[in-house]
Amino acid sequence: MKFDPGFDIQPTQKPFGFQLGPDCFDCGIEYRKLDSIRKSLRDPKCDGPENVYAIMMDVGCKADLPAMQARMLLYGVVTYAAGRLGNEPIRSQGHIHKVSEHCGWSTPEVYEIWDGEAVIYMQETAEDQPGRCFAVYAGPGDVVIVPPYWAHATISANPTKPLTFGAWCDRDYGFVYDGVRKHGGIAWFPLLDDINQLYWEKNEAYQTSELIRKRPEIYTQFGIEPGKSIYQQFDEDHDKFLFVSNPAIAKEKWNNFIP
User: Fold this and answer.
1) C-alpha distances out from residue 43 to 40, 87, 120, Å
2) Domain extent listing, the chain
3) pLDDT on residue 99
4) C-alpha–C-alpha distance, residues 132 and 124, integer Å
5) If we measure between CA atoms, which residue out of 79, 93, 105, 108 comes closest to residue 42?
């Protein structure tokens, strides 16, 4: 992995997961299995890797944990398997973040791609009218912010190699799948052709929408510095990502947000 995430961690394939340095903490690893995400796939009967991705919520340097806890912040890491889910890329199933008890908001998330090719897909709602829909194409070092209340999914755009990323999240995190599952998935299905090129197909369970394909923004309104890992930026300014656990402090910035 060429990108430096800012602390001692490496994704592994055998075994599937992560290797952490001695100065790091973690709370264990979970695996999302294919059977658990079938309800959100275009073809629920497809074949694919049994372990679609490995996830560790709450990792980092031991010395940073008190500062994270005091700010209700959590750093999570995910690595995807290589391969396909039938005609679909490896991806998460799509969800909205639950309303956090401590702040009263569905909280945002700040992604950073470490390795591989990602598309962060997001739509304003999981209702019949999904609102604005974005497919944000990102590579190593790119940062993508998912705003509060939006449904979203993370997609591996290159099935020949694993995708790995980290994210700042609210410590009181939780996922709401109901709206996405009610519609059989997100409003636009990512699909792969015979030469592994990504394309999109509208999910007819939703009303008409437009898919906007783009590169990530440079989030100067949040003070995020391009070219520097978001973990290192937290180390240098522990309050920089308070808008994740307390999105009300950035209330005006979420209006007509463009990811």
Assistant:
1) 9, 8, 20
2) 18-250
3) 98
4) 6
5) 93
4-90-117 Cα angle (round to 5): 35
Give domain 18-250's CATH number out of 2.60.120.10, 3.40.50.300, 1.10.540.10, 1.10.10.1100.
2.60.120.10
Residues pairing with 121 in the sheet: 135, 153
Positive or negative, the CA dihedral 138, 98, 255, 223 is negative
Low-confidence ranges of the chain (pLDDT < 70): none
Q: Count other Cβ atoms within 10 Å, centred on residue 104.
A: 10
| Distance between CA atoms of residues 259 and 148, nearest Å | 12
The pLDDT of residue 96 is 97
Of the candidates 190, 141, 149, 136, the one whose C-alpha atom is nearest the C-alpha of residue 166 is 141
| Helix (H) or strand (E) run with residue 230 in it | helix 230-236
Q: Structure tokens of 130?
A: 């999904």
